[in-house]
Each structure stands twice: as structure tokens, then as C-alpha cells.
User: What shape does this take?
Amino acid sequence: MTTIEGKIFSGSFDEEAKIFTLQKVKHVYTETLMKQNQLQELYTYLSRSINEDGQVISLYDQLLVPLSKEEINQLLNDIDEILSTFH
Assistant: This one.
């Protein structure tokens, strides 16, 4: 397992299963399994909305975590780092 401590996303990557376990979003702890295609879709979506004022991530379909424009850029960097572990 490889641990990734990003500015927005933190978790661990299982090389054998090829899956990322998201364990923290900003300051909120969670437990979500993400496949490569899910991370890529999120990256693509955020890249297209980079000129907006911000975004909101929903955890457990109940807890809303706001992201500023700067945090979106940080998250894109985090996702890029996570995606690089898949190769």
C-alpha cells in the first residue's frame, strides 16, 4: 500500500487491487474506494469547471464540503498524483 497525503485528498493506493481508498477530504474523514476511471472523470469535470468560483463535494450524500478555486487546483494536483500511482 502506498499512502498519499495530498492537500485536499488523502488516502492509500493498493497496487495489487489497483484501487485508491479515499480516507480524508480536506479535514473530514471518510472511507471511499475509487477506481482509476472514477478519479479520471472527477479530474476531467474539475478541469472543465476551473474558471468557476468554486465547487462543492458531497460526502455520504449529506455532508457538503466547499472547495474554493485555489482548493480545486490543489485537488487537481492531488488527483494527478493519485492517477500516477495507477501506472
